[in-house]
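User: Design a sequence. Structure:
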């Protein structure tokens, strides 16, 4: 039986598919970097799920109730109350988005030369660690690198390797442990509660702090309920509380599971000294502690979004749509990361385009061709994103070359997903004609956002 979305559509926004000759011109003008395209030149936008979702009627109403006081905003205290209810931590400060939260917290925790060990760091997190003089070390389970492996928790930390890294380098060389839930770089893959408990035991053994990158915490909790033995009868709220009880704190881009267009959070479980240092560092970087770079209306919308995102009916529809697209692609013979993750379908571009070597960025090549085919904008998660070794400048080879089809929350219907699947299937049928790309110009940090490319 098909379960429909648990909402009705109240407003619509027109979209337009421009003709292919126009798409070719627009792509050349964007120097073959899809970040440089104007949104009106995109038909279906699957670039990211960050801040691109649709808010509820209650959230829109909350915008009107926002208190824009510089200090002591009522909307801040509503947000704080909602955070305590959902996460169970004691202290919270807002930030304008996730990378703002990282920029405030990380310099307080990282000394130059220290490692931050996690399951699989995402691009902006890795950049913030490196900019603070640290080293981001991935320690995800090996199953994550086999896209055909059906392991239900490919975001898990490899515990044996984690302990080995700490033993070899010494705990003093580790700033903190960071677990991303769900793990974006591995394909939106969840982390199990049992694995989080194991990581907590390792953190306690070596007296190390444990933080979560919690951008997609609710989707992770949904997978735990559906896949982890012994969690079937627990509510999403109960699972979320248990997840966060295992961490000393977290950073969060609220533009994902906060269901808002802008916002971020830093949560601290009980360390008041760290909280005071965070508040002090927040002021010159983000703003006063009761607004942290956000308007009062945005804090009001976030307070409501955190309550809506832990509703199981919402999560069932959300994850179900991602699964729907994944099944359509598998039926077309397209290789993807399995099982399908929570916010996106990750196409294995390395297998899709075996004739394109990693130095010619198969994921980016596939993204370019999909836009030319159908006006669909997706994003590369592979060697182009990973960049160069900061010490040597040599291109790093990503263990996975992905095209990420990232689905915004509550925005598209399954008819849109059908169109995406059929378009990618058309590219797959002529995949041997897809050309690689080369970099013409690139910045030193996070190059994939603004680099200029050309077709080979």
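Assistant: Done.
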């Amino acid at each position: 039986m098909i379960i429909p979305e648990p909402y009705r559509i109240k407003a619509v926004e027109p979209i337009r598919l421009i003709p292919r000759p126009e798409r070719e011109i627009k792509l050349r003008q964007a120097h073959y970097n899809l970040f440089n395209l104007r949104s009106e030149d995109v038909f279906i936008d699957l670039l990211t799920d960050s801040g691109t979702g649709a808010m509820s009627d209650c959230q829109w109403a909350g915008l009107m109730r926002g208190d824009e006081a510089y200090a002591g905003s009522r909307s801040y205290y509503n947000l704080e109350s909602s955070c305590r209810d959902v996460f169970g931590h004691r202290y919270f400060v807002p930030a304008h988005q996730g990378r703002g939260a990282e920029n405030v917290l990380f310099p307080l925790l990282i000394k130059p030369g220290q490692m931050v060990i996690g399951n699989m760091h995402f691009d902006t997190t890795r950049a913030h660690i490196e900019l603070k003089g640290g080293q981001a070390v991935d320690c995800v389970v090996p199953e994550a690198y086999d896209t055909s492996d059906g392991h239900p928790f490919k975001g898990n930390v490899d515990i044996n390797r984690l302990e080995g890294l700490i033993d070899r380098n010494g705990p003093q060389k580790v700033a903190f442990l960071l677990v991303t839930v769900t793990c974006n770089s591995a394909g939106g893959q969840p982390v199990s509660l049992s694995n989080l408990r194991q990581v907590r035991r390792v953190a306690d053994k070596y007296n190390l702090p444990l933080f979560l990158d919690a951008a997609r915490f609710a989707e992770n909790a949904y997978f735990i309920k559906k896949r982890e033995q012994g969690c079937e009868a627990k509510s999403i709220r109960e699972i979320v509380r248990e997840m966060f009880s295992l961490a000393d704190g977290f950073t969060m881009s609220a533009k994902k599971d906060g269901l808002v267009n802008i916002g971020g959070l830093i949560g601290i479980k009980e360390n008041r000294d760290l909280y005071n240092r965070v508040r002090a560092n927040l002021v010159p970087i983000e703003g006063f502690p009761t607004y942290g770079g956000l308007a009062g209306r945005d804090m009001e919308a976030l307070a409501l979004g955190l309550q809506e995102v832990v509703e199981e009916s919402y999560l069932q529809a959300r994850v179900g749509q991602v699964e729907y697209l994944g099944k359509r692609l598998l039926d077309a013979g397209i290789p993807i990361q399995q099982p399908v993750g929570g916010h996106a379908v990750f196409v294995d571009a390395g297998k899709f385009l075996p004739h394109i070597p990693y130095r010619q960025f198969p994921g980016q090549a596939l993204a370019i061709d999909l836009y030319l085919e159908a006006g669909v904008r997706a994003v590369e998660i592979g060697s182009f994103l990973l960049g160069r070794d900061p010490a040597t400048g040599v291109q790093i080879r990503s263990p996975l070359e992905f095209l990420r089809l990232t689905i915004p929350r509550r925005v598209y219907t399954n008819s849109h997903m059908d169109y995406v699947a059929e378009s990618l299937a058309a590219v797959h049928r002529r995949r041997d004609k897809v050309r690689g790309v080369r970099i013409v110009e690139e910045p030193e940090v996070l190059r994939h956002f603004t680099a200029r490319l050309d077709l080979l």
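The radius of gyration is 21 Å. The chain has a mean pLDDT of 97.
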